[in-house]
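Journal club prep — side note

Before the paper discussion, L.F. wants everyone to see what a predicted structure for a comparable chain looks like in token form. Sequence:
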Amino acid sequence: MCGLLTFVSYSGSNKYGKKVTVKEKTKISEILSQPRKFDGKRVLVEGQVVDVCTNQGCWIMISEDKDSEPIRFKVEDGVIVFPVDEKGGTVRAQGVVSAKEYTKEELIEQGKHHAEEAGKTFDPSTVKGPKMVVILKGEGAVISR
């Protein structure tokens, strides 16, 4: 694995990747309810880190609040690595929205991969497809405790 780990810690805030430059916040719920509208657009989201990739630290799940659907903030493997202990932190994250329709077969493969990364089991019978999958292709994040 080759890449550049970008991590800077400042008084209670950890900065990952590129500088966050987008000023206007977009609600995660708005992105998830209108994915085609936001596809390809650079956005800033805020919320709580509700999960972290335990395999390579290559993604975090961000939720606006405890009852809302989270969005996956995915970074290139090895370029940014999120430590597992960032779970529970408050995050400001900038990235480009990617909305893609996946077949049932693609969703099963993706589910197997995500379960493996999270150290969990996966039941392919739970997959209904096709489905629109929305992620943020991560550029930079600031996580506070």
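L.F.'s comment for the group: Helices lie at 28-33, 35-38, 104-118. Keep this in mind when we get to the figures.
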